[in-house]
Amino acid sequence: MDNAIAKPELLAPCGSMESLLAALKAGCDAVYIGGKLFSARQNAGNFSHEDIIEAIKECHRRGVKIYQAINIAVFDSELESLADEIRFACSAGIDGLIVQDRAVERIVRGSCPDMPIHASTQMTIHFSDGVLWAADHGYTRVVLSRELDKNTISKLSDLGAETEIFVHGALCMSVSGQCYLSAMIGSRSANRGLCAGACRLPFSSLGKPKDKYALSLKDLTLINEAKELSEIGASSLKIEGRMKRPEYVSAATGEFRSALDGKDYDYELLRSAFSRSGFTDGYFLGKRDGSMFGARSIEDVTDMTSSLTRIHEKYKSEYPRFSLSMSLRLQRNENSALTATDGSETIVVSGAVPQEAINRPLTQDAAISQLSKLGGTLYRPGEITAEIEPGLMLPLSELNSLRRQAVEKLDRLRQEKFTVEKPFTPTDYLPEADKKPKKPISWWVSVEKLSQLEKIDCERVIIPLSLAEDYIKSGFDPGKAILSPPRFTLHADKVEADLIAAKALGFKTAMAVNSGYIRMLERLGLDAVGGFGLNITNSLSADEYALDGLKALTLSYELKAAQLSNIQASVPKGAVLYGRLPLMVMANCPIKAEAGCKACSRSLTDRTGTVFPLRCRMREGEDYNELLNSKTLYLPDKLGYFDIDFGILMFTDETAEEVETVLSDYKSGITRRDGKDYTNGLYFRGVL
Fold it and tell me: Looking at residue 534, what is its pLDDT?
């Protein structure tokens, strides 16, 4: 890719029409919105179909692009409505769709291939194979994970696909697309657009918290790195905040506009518009430490309230986007004529016939001065000339009318030019119903330590990639194993080298825990099994991953048992049926930030006293930690509700004897009454 320096797109968030107008006035190049359905910010005001049509008009007359986020995990029961929403977006003239679920990819590819699709940050794309996988599947842009440093962003932006990065706004503690905390606690799924923000509540590694917010990061801002952002190669710079008020959108968009244009910006105004004890740029600079953590304070709220008037005053006027050149011609016995161009379109408007001047004829200077009054429009004065036959007069109101007609006509032409309806041809995209008879569940055991395998016999075992060599030395069968690579990595080259070494040892299969691994494993000649992190929640998505060559699919544990059972898949499908389910993938360690590694409790406690174990992957040389559920998923007596091919029993710190007992429970379908506090997960209550 030619990385010639070009000013990147400034992309603003809009959760309502008021926020959209605020973003447009402040100078954004593009906006992203959500409809009433299928948006990852369901708690924002969002846009009805009528609102979207009006929003498109407002954006396109300014030459601003408008993207619609259809970026939640979709259920089979919603696929028809999903197709209807995509059809509407195509007919209305939306410029692109932001996508998490591959059902959208399938429908767009089959029915409206002219519609650009952007791979959402919810797809957890953070290394080169992920970017290239997305490009191979028709995604025109990839929204990168927020945890990447500037060097990684630069390298990924040089692969041929457009990249989009977050430059301002809230930072989730979890890597996007890999958070199940809100869903598990209250059935409000982040992958379904209804995150309850549980991580912003008190948590501590030091016991029941009091004013401790171990899972709360400061908001991101990279405004001080504006020059680097313009040179790094990213195509789009994204501001987070579809649930924020219009004043926040104004301030964030306007100050970034100034910074990117090389002008002075007001950092304090940006901070007062919204922050959590200030800002962080830690991920971008590669400094993942305690300075990144912060919570919303009373002072932050007070500062925001006091800044509203200033923000209103600063961004009440329209941002002048175009240079307007005009040429006036006044001749006797002819209609007045004004030729105008915005650099793209040239138009001519006509007005009244000029009159003979009785006292003061119209001068060139006076005409030019009047035509230059473009305040409140999208234009700034360009070259303005006037050819006036001597002795003529035209009222200033007529000059104003000519100028207004020219502006309105150019606005209308631009709106028509940018609003492109994309043909939508309905297709039969649903896979055929699976008529195979129900078979007994095959049991796969996932372990963290090889000692956990000593007393069991099962169909497949899942082991960390880091244990591959020791697995062989212990005499286990590599053909039976599925290697599990890191769920998040900043060192994909090392992971690839480890997979190559494992293949040489006789391993044949690995877990594709995100889309990047699908491409990597295919390149390396290893079979791939889809992991739960792919968030497969419907039959279309399952079919797309099967077409990618995956040999089996692990479905999302945010599905109900009935939903799991009804998903149609052309390859074996399964689910995690035992264990402490991972609730977060964290690229920064909350315990290290709060207490230090030496005082590591390996757990966090919430305000109710509930303890959540933390699985420290960073001690193993990896780039993330996992927050685990407080209760163990355990349901051997409910297996009759599941029509799946395999069940994964996920063990963390259990002994070999405990592993043996649990596997026996599941094979027999008998539940132990040992007094422990178990959970059925979400398999019977589901998510919103």
Answer: 98
Q: DSSP string spanning 115-177? A: S-EEE-GGG---SHHHHHHHHHTTEEEEE--TT--HHHHHHHTTSSSEEEEEEEE---SBPTT
**Which H or E run includes 341?**
strand 337-341
Q: Residue 320: exposed, middle, or buried by beta-carbon count in 10 A (0-12, 13-18, 19+)?
A: middle
Distances in whole angstroms, Cα of residue 294 to Cα of each of 211, 412, 544 = 11, 47, 40
Q: Which residues contact 72 (CB under 8 A, 6 or more apart)?
A: 38, 39, 40, 42, 100, 101, 191, 192, 193
Report whether 99 contacts 118 (CB < 8 A).
yes
pTM: 0.95
β-bridge mates for residue 237, sequence order: 10, 165
**CA–CA dist 335, 354 (Å, integer):** 7
Both tokens of residue 404? Answer: 């207004």
User: Shortest CA distance to 344 belongs to which of 61, 596, 580, 153?
Assistant: 61
Give SS3 for 54. helix
Please report which helix (H) or strand (E) contains residue 11, including its range.
strand 9-13
| 262 contact partners, CB below 8 Å, separation of at least 6 | none
First to last CA, the chain: 42
Write the DSSP symbol of residue 438.
P
Q: Rounded CA gap, 12 and 236, in Å?
A: 10
Task: Work out the angle at residue 682's Cα, subtended by the Cα atoms of residues 612 and 465, and round it to the nearest 5 degrees.
Answer: 60
In contact, 343 and 323? CB cutoff 8 Å: yes
Residue with tokens 């970017």: 131
Digit-coded pLDDT (tens) for 502-561: 999 999 999 999 999 999 999 999 999 999 999 999 999 999 999 999 999 999 999 999
Q: How far apart are CA 134 and CA 637, in angstroms?
A: 41
161/141 Cα distance (integer angstroms): 6
Sign of dihedral through CA atoms 565, 566, 567, 569? positive
Euclidean distance between CA atoms 110 and 174, whole angstroms: 33
Q: Do residues 162 and 135 lie in contact, with contact meaning Cβ atoms separated by under 8 Å?
A: no
Nearest to 226 by CA among 271, 253, 267, 256: 256
CB–CB of 202/212 below 8 Å? yes
Using CA atoms, how far residue 304 sits from 62, 267, 311, 514, in Å, is 29, 13, 10, 39
CA distances in angstroms from 68 to 47, 49, 139, 218, 550, listed in the order given: 10, 11, 15, 27, 30
**For 28-37, what is each residue's pLDDT tens digit?**
999 999 999 8
Both tokens of 648, joined, read 């994964």
Pair type for strands 203-204 and 162-169: unpaired
CB 122 within 8 A of CB 130: no
